[in-house]
């Protein structure tokens, strides 16, 4: 069996002990009914002559008087929105559509007893974005290098094993339930790197995709598929995959028609093209707008969308060539195409210009394409943030990204790379569940406070948590992203991870590789000069005032200094410290904080189930070990390069 994550039976206690009536029809309303029945059955009560909770579609006829009163005040709810109020001893959830009723139900679960206490004024909830999606980097076959799940740190895939569909519908259904309970309504079921077997999900393996879609549908989740741009050639035997070729266009039209005949509510395609070896329109001298529009046109008759990734850069660059800057690539490729994409083409942009580092500036692409639908891609799977061996609560980082003023309102949806696998705890590290939960909540409301989200997650996952447990969890998780940042690469410079696995320190691991991920440390200084004045000019991709803030050595925020500037070790930060002393101080502090996290977890002993306790403790042991390794390698490296001793005389090897 698997861990209940944020839906343990106890979280349904308040609901299950009430008498509930459900008004409305349809498959999702049936799901709501079955959730209520299950909660009632588990609590062994729920009887009584009157009702305490009304869950109603606003179109249901007749509506009980309490719900009609809410309808009179609620305003436009939309298909996924709902209103909640409590008056005279009855709680009402009124939804604008069946999915809204499901979200309203899970909101009642979140509220617990407080949904049934004192009167509550009407509150309305509507998702900020219509699509809230997770992308699985799950392979169907076990890939010789990447395994079953690329960058997966939670065991195998819940969908695929060794080339076959696993067919574990109970697990997939349980997954759908978890996703719905945090507001997620779409998934991509396979890796964006589409290998030979995965390509066939579009054609003769479509039945597997249908099985997943059928299983997730009762929880309001639509399935999308990663496809290879070369499909007409590799699957259809055409001589070309040129997006402007008529034969290619009809091939995609026919393939897409078959998909919708099989899965009428299919979400659409996800494409990684001309990126890290995946095929794309460049081979035919066509643009990425041509490529995306080809698929958008095939999907349009059915209301489908194509998510087209902007992660396009030269991964075969020469480290000797200082003029090529990977950070520039997405903007250079895509900003000139603004306005050329179809309405149902969504450009999916990683949140930073590089690649999911613990600290990056926000991608300038997001502010540069006002006439294009954009999705911002976040990475719940902790590729560069401790691989689910380290506790690293990412919502504070994501919130910073989403609140960055030039990008606010510039993107239409959020996507996260999934951190889920067939591990009993879903995410390897039980505390990493909070990242998936928080992603869903932020995709629903990007302004939500990450620490309040964490409290929601704590209350659901550990129902009625004793205060010491809540405090220990906050002590461990609230600042865990910044702690991770402290003991890894300094001041926004990024990478310094072991090539390939991306786990653990290797300061020069990427310094002379073709991947474009350099720090340029020498005996005098460190950092990448990305200024317009003397560097790669990347700062010029930002709108004012950020183009000037980042350009200026004085104004550039400390945490991004080495992303934008190459400075001497003695350069004084806004904090008052020198760069070299900052490196030493943060690395000693970060490793110490990791040890404190482990100490705090001891307080949770006996307050959480033993299997959760043990799993987290094991992982904290590894985090402490790894943080020390990072500390010692990074400090030794910079001490040896610079020759500058630590002002506090601590041990550097
Ligand atoms: O972060 C990098 C990963 C690759 C991944 C790629 C991408 C799916 O190291 O494993 O490939 O990004 O986002 O496409």
UniProtKB/TrEMBL annotation:
It comes from the Bacteria. One of its GO terms (molecular function) is xylan alpha-1,2-glucuronosidase activity. Pfam families: Glyco_hydro_67C (PF07477), Glyco_hydro_67M (PF07488). Keywords: Hydrolase. GO terms for biological process: xylan catabolic process. Residues 427-650 form the Glycosyl hydrolase family 67 C-terminal domain. InterPro entries: A-glucoronidase_C_sf (IPR037054), GH (IPR017853), Glyco_hydro_67_C (IPR011099), Glyco_hydro_67_cat (IPR011100), Hex-like_dom2 (IPR029018). The keyword Hydrolase applies. One of its GO terms (cellular component) is extracellular region. Residues 124-407 form the Glycosyl hydrolase family 67 catalytic domain. This is Xylan alpha-(1->2)-glucuronosidase. The gene is aguA.
